[in-house]
Amino acid sequence: MSLTSIAFLAFAAVVLFVYYLTPGKYRWAVLLVASIAFYISFSVVGIILLIVLSLVAYFCALQIEKTQKRQEMWLTEHSDTDKETKKAAKRRFKGVQRRYVILTIVLCIGSLFLLKYYGPFASEINRLFGTRFWTAENLLVPLGISFYSLQIIGYVIDVSRGVATAERNPLKVILYASFFLSIMQGPFNRWNDLMPQIVTEEKKKLEFRQFRLAILRIIWGYIKKMCIADQVGLIASEVFGHYEKYEGLGLLLGIFCFAVQLYADFSGYMEIVNGIGDLLGIKMSENFRQPFFSRNISEFWQKWHISLGAWLKDYVFYPLLKSRWLQRFGKWLTKHFGKGLGRRLPTYIGMLILWTLIGAWHGAGFNYVFSVGLLQFLYIFLGEITAPVSERVKKFLHIKDSNFFWHAFQSIRCTVLMIFAWVFFNSRTFMDAIAMLGRIFAVQGLGFAQLKSQINSVFLSEGTTLTGLWQTWILYVMLCTAVLLLADAIHERGGSVRLWMEKRPYVVRLAFYLALTFTILIFGAYGSQYNSSDFIYFQF
Amino acid sequence: MLKKKYIRGPLKVLSFAVCFAAIFLLLQPVFIPKNESSAVANQFYDFAEENLDVLFLGASQMLSGVNAQKLTEEYGISSHNFGAGVQHPAITLYYLREALKTQTPKTVMVEVCEIFDPIEDLRDAPTGERVAWSYLPMKLTSEKINSYREVTGGNRLQAAEFCLTPLLVYHSRWNSIWVEDVKRLCGGYPDIKRGYIELTRVAPQTLDYIGDEEGEEKAIPPENDDALSAIAATCEENGIALVFFKAPVARWTRAESKVVKAYMAEHGYTYLELNDHLDEIGIDPETDFCNTLHLNASGANKTTDFLANYLKKRS
């Protein structure tokens, strides 16, 4: 059930209706049934793994909590024992807890590795060494495994950290893992953020204002997905799919279109699910905060796919930095090479691991590990080591951080770096990306005539009586980019079109609603003339 | 106060719905693709000047092969072409029924160039798109939905979407909508008169019909037989004389003609094979064809003269 299908809209409407008809304390059950039904609409077999892993998490979390209670009781009972015995007991109890955390991690990451990474990995080994390892061809990657496996791990770790309490009802853990609004592409919800909103006895009412604002958000999400991502994506798919036919500007246009597509697609999805969440009175994590206004790559990743970065930081990066071996290594470095290196190198090692994991999370190919992993690390690393130089240059040129043009320059630089990385991200292989980048400069002149003829032949159906329509596509791409930038610029300044529109007279609002609706109807990529396309992050 | 609140809400929803419907209906005709077939159908719907003596039905070979305006003005036989680029017998039946809602012609003449085409062939992508042209300009009726569904083999929902909300089907034309679309909407195609499409190009042809080869023997698919029988029954019910005919074209063989003649004789239908009268009509393969499948203006005028005499003799 695609999010852009009529079936999904009908499904969401039914869920909403039943949800508000049900008494507050049973509403979580409505969401559980909806989530299971939604999941089954994609895969019947996949739900089994989801349930098994949820039950493992349920069991482990309970055992961890029991151990914590036993520890507390032991400490109360043995309050007069000496410190060393207490420490040993604590270590023992911690060890038991750690075993349950490790069991959850092994099972979740093991399933994720087996189903998502093992096949490509084994195929590559077979290709390189002529071996005949099983390549897991008959195993399908279950929907959302990259999302729910991490969420489950996060839940168990939170319980072990004492941040969350272990859930007594296994069905609620299944609901947490399978929640239909975040199962496909996130966001990564933390137990403590999501579940208290779902499992509540409070009978929330759907206010008309809340309804109106949520619907507007959903419509904006559909505009981003159907009118921007899917339309602009036609050019991106064509150029990336047949890059060998293009040179110069044609390739640059395709690459630029992919950046627009990726942002509109992913953020459009988030607008839709967050909008539906608003309708249900459930506030989910925001995944985007105007990333293209970032001044550097670190900031970009704090504004792009926020929940993934935050999850990996909290559950991988910080524990790694606090780990005994890295701390010891830091101390050793400080002793032998000084404070600076002793502080920085362990952090860089942690960052390298973090970025490799972010890259690998996206896919098994080296292009993923490189584009949104190692290359990002390199950007940040180079940014940090050159920071003193750029500070000096800034001082010399009397540039202030608040200067608009300086900010614009930094944002454009950051965007160009990300677009460069996405060439690798969206290419079939690493070498394809290299070849594609090489062809940008292979053309004599700008390749404008070639671009024109390609767009004419690819995007204009036969029988079109008018010539020169390729310009419409270029204008459309520019318009889409402008709309996205304008919307982000308003949000960056703390504004909101929805809230602004709310205060306008009814006639203006009516015109606005009609304009949005007809924008989707006319510019949306749906119907027989288009191949319906899934959200890009759906595959991860 | 409470009352106001309860009235205001539904009123707002209603005003949105009304505005939405109005804009939708205004935009829809702009997005519907337009070609000569649209002009032919629109002209027929707008035509109410007189009751027709002869109604011509058929595909493009009829549209460009019979000059209804000449027939009316020079011979006093009030006539009109009511065809489309693709007019399979099943579509012809639908056109006939549609025409009989406003007209009671004395004679109906049906061109049979698509008599051998199985209905499945219409469902392939390029032909399927051409079939859409046959339905797009037609008025919205339940017969239109049913006929479209039958011909395209789609489900009722798809047919209803196509017929009721073509904007949703053709919205992707946003990138090719231009002034031309609006012009055509406001009565474009001034050259088309009484449904006759004049083709001026001259392309010399070698005619299969007078060649040495008999040609491949073909069979009339059962669904076409059903449609032709229904056409005949409809004409009979309405007291209309029915004549099937074949316009002169380069790609029509004697073998095909033989099968059609045998079929018509077997069912007792009147059939006029114009390719048997090429000399009488005065068709010159060097000057009277536009391409292998269509007569040009010169050929159409000669054929029309012949048909006028034929119709006069019949009456």
Strand content of chain B: 5-15%
Question: Most extensive chain contact?
Answer: A-B, 27 and 21 residues
Number of helical stretches of at least 4 residues of chain B: 14
Architecture of the largest domain in chain B, CATH level 2?
3-Layer(aba) Sandwich
CATH superfamily of the largest domain in chain B: SGNH hydrolase
Record field, number of beta strands of chain B: 5
What's the level 1 CATH class of the largest domain in chain B?
Answer: Alpha Beta
Q: Distance N terminus to C terminus of chain B?
A: 77 Å
Write the H/E string of chain B, N to C. HHEHHEHEHHHHHHEHEHH
The amount of beta strand of chain A, in percent, is under 5%
The number of distinct structural domains of chain A comes to 3
Structure report:
The complex is a heterodimer of chains A (540) and B (315). By secondary structure, chain A is mainly alpha-helical. Chain A contains 21 helices and no strands. Chain A has helices spanning 6-21, 27-40, 46-77, 83-129, 145-161, 170-178, 191-198, 208-241, 248-279, 297-303, 306-322, 324-337, 339-362, 366-385, 387-396, 404-426, 430-440, 448-459, 470-492, 497-502, 506-523. Chain A starts with 5 loop residues before the first helix and ends in a 17-residue tail after the last helix. Mean pLDDT of chain A is 88; it is low at 460-468. In chain B, α12 (254-267) links the parallel β4 (241-246) and β5 (270-273). Chain B is α/β, with parallel strands linked by helices. In chain B, α5 packs antiparallel against α7 and α7 crosses α8 (156-164). A five-stranded parallel sheet of chain B has the order 2-1-3-4-5. Chains A and B meet through α19 and α21 of A and α1 and α9 of B.
